[in-house]
Amino acid sequence: MATAKIGDVITFEREGKSHEGVVSGIRENSVMVEYGYSKGKDEPLVTIVNHKNYKIKK
């Protein structure tokens, strides 16, 4: 399986919904992804996704 690089766009699922985000960090078993923006908190929405649980969008 190909591992995403910083800046790659990936798709993943959270709570039954499909999301798309940009990889902002890489770890041994996962990637950090920015997938939106919270206007209420005035900060980006960030989550961690295991390498097995995303697909790189082309």
Protein model, in words:
By secondary structure, the protein is an all-beta fold. The chain has one domain. Helices cover 0% and strands 62% of the residues. It is built from no helices and 5 strands. It has strands at 9-14, 17-26, 30-38, 43-50, 54-56. It has a 5-stranded antiparallel β-sheet with strand order 4-3-2-1-5, with no helix packed on it. It is globular and about 35 Å long. The model has no long low-confidence stretch (mean pLDDT 95).
Q: How many domains comprise the coordinates?
A: 1
How many β-strands, per DSSP? 5
| Overall radius of gyration | 11 Å
Query: What is the helix fraction of residues, given as a range?
Result: under 10%
| Average residue pLDDT | 95
Q: What is the overall shape?
A: globular
The largest sheet is: 5 strands, antiparallel
- First-last Cα distance: 15 Å
Number of helices: 0
Please state the structural category: mainly beta
* Range of strand content: over 45%
Order of helices and strands: EEEEE
List unreliable stretches of 5+ residues.
none
Q: Largest beta sheet: what is the strand line-up? A: 4-3-2-1-5
Secondary structure topology:
Elements: E1 9-14, E2 17-26, E3 30-38, E4 43-50, E5 54-56
Antiparallel strand pairs: 1-2, 1-5, 2-3, 3-4
Q: What's the short version?
A:
This protein has strands at 9-14, 17-26, 30-38, 43-50, 54-56.
Name the descriptors:
about 60 residues, mainly beta, five-stranded antiparallel beta sheet
